[in-house]
Specification:
Largest sheet: 7 strands, mixed
Strand content: 15-25%
Radius of gyration: 42 Å
Number of helices: 21
Number of strands: 25
Distance between the termini: 105 Å
């Protein structure tokens, strides 16, 4: 019965036919039927259980499919609308972009036509004037009428000092014109890395027009040759792209304020034969050095080259033990060990030599003595010859003759060393432009640099309209002893002819503010007072004060010719010019608001070949010294990476260092 009812509920006709449909009254048959029915019942029960399980499983699976398919359908529906939205957005975006470009094109065409129509006539046909009756560039092709009332600020140069001035100037204070032989800013601290291909040349350059555009400045590619001080005109000589000046193509550029930041050239020290050497100050110098190195190596690899000639070609000599030559020697050593031995005949390696000739007893003599010793020991391990206490007598074609002092006696001997490349980097000298300016001023004659005051104004210019900074200039040290009476009277408040400790502290504070270069020489206040108080009466008289000032004057030194100094001077001068324009040219009010230039030495770095050394001013005695290690290399890179003037050069440096690490340096010669 149960099986029949179950079969009927399932609608299974086959199952229903298996059950009896007639009732038999026979007892025996009934007993047999009972037995058969029991068997059938057990079979049905098993079928029931199996079918029930199958139904439950089917129902559960169906429910799971429904649960799973519902979010999928919703997600599909949502994704469909998202795709439609993205497509619509793309269509709208493309249409908008096309519209903007069309409008921009129309605007540019209109702006170009308007700019062409508004070109000042004097920009096309300038008047003549000045001492030499040359064309005067009073207007330029891209002049803005709003700039006519602004003071004319002319910046000569495109180095660290000039760029720092441009970056710190207010945008609307001056009508700025930059004059330079190069239309780019060169990151000079990394120039040695470009001589062997560690860095590409373009990675060190930033167009000066992009930097000048910040203050809406103009740029003129030319070489400044002289200054007409009386008429306030800068004489400029036109320059070809290859750097060769053109004769009889000169013009004047007028100025109200003139900033000179032209750098310096290498000093000869009276040594003959410098035409056989190569300097390293410009990007062209780096190109020449790289080309010379590769040409020498390729010639040395020829089988027809004699052993003597091969040694000469592979001899690299650097005269001078400063940071530039030290870093070039380190880069050369890295190139030899990592690239030369890999791509050139290995039998040539013993013939390669790198030599540094230094006139003093240590290389890197501007660094701490511990750093100099570390550098010399490292170069000794890298087989770089360091020759100290030696002075170059003359340089001949393929040969350096120098005099070496004996360490044990006062005797000396002449030594010859052949070279395939000789690098000269010893000291600085005035350029022809700064020489021409100095000859016009009595206060500047027979000097090695342009002297300025503490506000970077050139000495000898009555109206203080010319400023100078960087390697071409130096702040003239004050002769404090010549101002003894003024300083003593300023400090002697009670006019008793003696200075108490409080009065002495007041005059020291005044000297430090008025002449910041004296800070490092004034020392501890109490110790100085006790040292010069000879009679120990707790007072300083006029004679004791004179002795103190004489000692301070004797210790005064000039600022180093480094990019760090030029950069800080440029920032200071930019701030000074901003305040001067705000005060309508009133120098007294400006000087009251702006302190004299105060150089803050942050530290110095030098690359030594896969490592670096440095010293940092931490405000504590001795500062912090960095002596090699892999971390020093990455710190050295990080410092110079952060000092870049644009994101483009930062990316280029990162790419170049990565390429060098993965694939080595480029050894092709162009």
């Amino acid at each position: 019965m149960y099986g029949q009812r179950f079969a009927m509920s399932l609608g299974n006709k086959q199952t229903m036919q298996t059950f009896p449909t007639k009732v038999y009254r026979s007892r025996n048959f009934i007993l047999g039927r009972v037995s058969s029915e029991s068997t059938a019942t057990s079979t049905v029960r098993r079928t029931w259980n199996t079918t029930t399980f199958s139904l439950r499983e089917y129902t559960t699976q169906q429910q799971q499919d429904n649960v799973t398919s519902a979010p999928k359908k919703k997600l599909f529906q949502k994704g469909k609308w998202i795709r439609r939205g993205l497509l619509a957005s793309a269509i709208v975006g493309v249409g908008t972009l096309a519209y903007i470009l069309q409008q921009d094109k129309e605007y540019l065409e209109s702006a170009i036509q308007q700019a062409h129509d508004n070109v000042p006539p004097l920009a096309l046909h300038p008047d003549t004037g000045g001492k030499k009756n040359l064309p005067v560039v009073s207007h330029q092709l891209d002049d803005n009428p709003l700039e006519e009332d602004k003071p004319r600020l002319v910046i000569v140069g495109s180095g660290w000092g000039a760029v720092s001035v441009l970056k710190s100037l207010d945008k609307d204070k001056y009508n700025v014109t930059v004059i330079s032989e190069n239309n780019y800013f060169l990151f000079t601290p990394l120039l040695p890395s470009a001589t062997v291909g560690t860095l590409e040349l373009r990675s060190l350059l930033e167009p000066i027009r992009k930097i000048a555009a910040r203050v809406q400045g103009h740029f003129l590619e030319g070489k400044a040759v002289d200054v007409d001080i009386d008429n306030k005109l800068v004489e400029v000589e036109r320059v070809k792209h290859n750097g060769v000046p053109l004769e009889n193509e000169r013009y004047y550029v007028p100025y109200d304020k003139l900033v000179i930041a032209v750098g310096a050239t290498s000093i000869s020290h009276g040594v003959e034969g410098l035409e056989h050497t190569l300097p390293l100050k410009t990007i062209v110098d780096a190109i020449n050095i790289r080309r010379k190195i590769m040409n020498n190596v390729e010639q040395a690899a020829l089988p027809t080259t004699t052993p003597e000639e091969r040694k000469r070609l592979l001899s690299f000599v650097a005269v001078g033990g400063g940071p530039t030559n030290v870093e070039v020697a380190a880069e050369l050593s890295d190139w030899i060990e990592e690239d030369f031995v890999k791509w050139f005949p290995k039998s040539m390696r013993p013939d390669v030599s790198v030599t540094i000739i230094q006139s003093r007893d240590h290389i890197l003599n501007t660094f701490d003595h511990e750093i100099s010793n570390y550098a010399e020991n490292r170069f000794k391990r890298k087989k770089i010859n360091v020759v100290t206490n030696s002075r170059v007598e003359r340089i001949e074609d393929g040969k350096v003759i120098y005099r070496r002092k004996s360490p044990d006696s006062d005797s000396s001997e002449l030594v010859e060393i052949p070279f395939g490349l000789c690098l000269w980097a010893t000291g600085i000298a005035m350029t022809s432009f700064t020489k021409n300016l100095a000859e016009q001023l009595d206060a500047q004659r027979h000097q090695r640099v342009l002297w300025t005051d503490e506000y970077l104004r050139v000495k000898g210019i009555p109206d203080h309209s010319i400023f100078a900074l960087g390697d071409c200039a130096s702040i003239q040290n004050p002769k404090l002893v010549n101002r003894i009476i003024e300083l003593f009277e300023r400090a002697d408040k009670n006019h008793d002819g003696m200075l108490t400790m409080e009065e002495f502290a007041h005059v020291v504070k005044y000297i430090s503010r008025r002449y910041p270069l004296t800070k490092q020489h004034l020392g501890q206040l109490v110790e100085m007072f006790d040292t010069y108080d000879k009679d120990k009466n707790g007072l300083l008289d006029m004679d004791e004060m004179r002795t103190l000032l004489q000692d301070v004057d004797s210790k005064m030194t000039h600022l180093p010719a480094t990019a760090q100094v030029a950069s800080q001077q440029g920032n200071h001068l930019g701030h000074y010019l901003n305040v001067l324009a705000k005060e309508k040219g009133d120098e007294d009010k400006t000087n009251a608001q702006v302190n004299p230039f105060d150089y803050k030495h942050l530290g110095a770095l030098a690359y030594l070949g896969n490592t670096a050394v440095g010293e940092f001013n931490t405000g504590t005695p001795g500062g912090f010294k960095m002596l090699g290690g892999l971390w020093a290399l990455y710190l050295w890179r990080s410092v110079y990476w952060s000092e870049q003037v644009s994101l483009r050069t930062r990316l280029n440096l990162s790419i170049d260092w990565t390429k060098t690490g993965l694939f080595g340096r480029d050894i092709s010669s162009i």
